[in-house]
Design brief:
Shape: elongated
Order of helices and strands: HHHHEEHHHEHEHEHEHEEHEHEEHE
Strand order of the largest sheet: 3-7-8-5-4-6
Strand content: 15-25%
Protein name: Iron-sulfur cluster binding protein
Distance between the termini: 53 Å
Pfam families: Fer4_21
Organism: Clostridium ljungdahlii (strain ATCC 55383 / DSM 13528 / PETC)
Largest sheet: 6 strands, antiparallel
Number of strands: 12
């Protein structure tokens, strides 16, 4: 089985797939195919084929998401990852190489990624809608205060990583090191050797800065706090693909704009990700049907002309 097949590389990415792996990694993937190996057996196999430290290369490939871990009854084994897993890590941590890929190809891969994510998420979203599951990732929009309170309530370690949505899509220049993660099990960023450990105060400072810069907060409380924008955010973009806007991430607040208090500064126009506030003839206008209820406009309105109402 050749590398492109083993690694499940989509057609749109075949011209750049060689950038994702080293020549040695490519050959190892073709040898492994669909099998799983203990680190000892895989290291031995590698050392027979290449003049390298096998265990060191296995760990490096795992860190780069070229390999994944799988837990079986007698321990942890390794298997080949696939393009869908690898591309986000590649874009997050090998950004210069990603940016060397022509923009047209990057955009096609970005579109493929959104569509693929939407297809995998749709059954899980349906389970939530049908009451068979409580939450999935990025389940709710959180207010700024709710996000800060969530951080205070956590009894897990918090670490930050570059936003995978922004890293892949590269659609804007907003802050990138704003994803706060809590999970540390196999195949997580932390287990692979990524992430900066944060104090709660450091985590809250990231959230406050993100809010000021127009990044929305979503969470399910168990895995992560995502601070992302409307143009890059994969859950928001995927929800448009599967028709679940307002359901996932779930809208929990209505926005109440008090025109009499508005000083027409235009801050809300700049902060809103969906064009729900517009400025015409030096006057602000609220376009309610465009609002997704993320609430960052309220926390950033300095004259308190924007309130929120729990649905």
């Amino acid at each position: 089985m050749n590398f492109l097949t083993c690694f499940k590389v989509p057609e749109v990415a075949k011209s750049m797939a060689h950038l994702l792996v080293t020549p040695e990694e490519r050959k190892i993937i073709e040898i492994i195919e669909d099998d799983i190996y203990s680190i000892k057996d895989l290291s031995t196999l590698i050392e027979k084929k290449f003049n390298v430290n096998g265990e060191e290369l296995v760990r490096k490939m795992y860190k780069r998401a070229v390999l994944n871990k799988v837990e079986v009854s007698d321990g942890i084994y390794y298997k080949t990852s696939e393009f869908y897993d690898r591309i986000a890590y590649f874009c997050q941590y090998e950004t210069d190489i990603w940016l060397s890929v022509p923009r047209k190809i990057r955009d096609e891969i970005d579109d493929w990624y959104v569509t693929t994510y939407a297809e995998t998420a749709e059954p899980r979203v349906k389970e939530v809608i049908d009451g068979k599951k409580d939450v999935i990732e990025n389940a709710y929009f959180f207010t700024l205060q709710e996000t800060l309170d969530l951080i205070d309530s956590l009894d897990k370690q918090i670490y930050s990583v570059p936003c995978n949505c922004n890293a892949v899509s590269q659609r804007c220049e907003k802050d990138k090191d704003v994803c706060l993660l809590f999970e540390t099990g196999i195949n997580t960023q932390w287990d692979r050797g990524h992430g900066k450990l944060l104090t709660k105060d450091e985590a809250k400072a990231i959230v406050v800065r993100a809010d000021k810069n127009g990044l929305m907060h979503t969470s399910e409380t168990d895995q992560a706090i995502c601070n992302c924008c409307g143009c890059c955010c994969y859950p928001i973009r995927a929800s448009k693909v599967i028709g679940t806007t307002g359901i996932w991430p779930k809208r929990r607040y209505d926005i109440i704009w008090e025109e009499s208090k508005c000083v027409n500064c235009g801050r809300c126009v700049k902060i809103c990700n969906f064009g729900a506030f517009v400025k015409e003839d030096k006057k602000i206008r609220y376009v309610e049907e465009k609002c997704l209820g993320c609430t960052i406009c309220s926390s950033q309105c300095h004259v308190k002309a924007i309130k929120i109402k729990k649905i």
